[in-house]
Design a protein that fits this description.
The chain is built from four helices and no strands. It has about 130 residues and is mainly α. The protein has one domain. Helix 2 packs across helix 4 and helix 3 runs antiparallel to helix 4. It starts with a helix and ends with a helix. The relative contact order is 0.20.
């Protein structure tokens, strides 16, 4: 695998993670707040940097997967990695004062974010 392909794949996944972060925050606040409330969705720069690092690490995992085991079963790998990263959000449902539907929707969106990133990496790396 060339460095150029890894960089391009990392950029594609990082862009997807940034878009998904804004969409997830919008969805969470839309479901958590009353219908008549006004809200402004903002994402901290720290969270954006975390998403960039997360995209780079996920690209490296995908590179190992596609270079050693081929392209079969990629969706299961990214579903499991996404579930591993989303587990803290699942257990926060009873501790967070936000409505359950908002927390469940956010957890499902995070899981979908990983599977879609896996599809993008399968497209770019295999």
């Amino acid at each position: 695998m060339t460095l150029g392909r890894l960089v391009i794949a990392s950029i594609v996944v990082a862009a997807w993670f940034e878009i998904a972060t804004f969409a997830t925050h919008y969805l969470f606040y839309r479901l958590a707040l009353p219908d008549d409330a006004e809200f402004l969705v903002g994402v901290s720069s720290r969270l954006l940097v975390e998403r960039l690092v997360e995209a780079l690490l996920l690209t490296l995992i995908a590179s190992l997967w596609f270079d050693s085991l081929g392209s079969g079963g990629w969706w299961l790998l990214f579903l499991l990695v996404g579930a591993l990263a989303t587990v803290p959000k699942w257990f926060a449902i009873g501790q967070n004062p936000a409505p359950k539907r908002a927390l469940v929707a956010a957890a499902c969106a995070h899981l979908a974010r990983y599977v879609i990133a896996g599809a993008l990496l399968a497209w770019r790396l295999s």
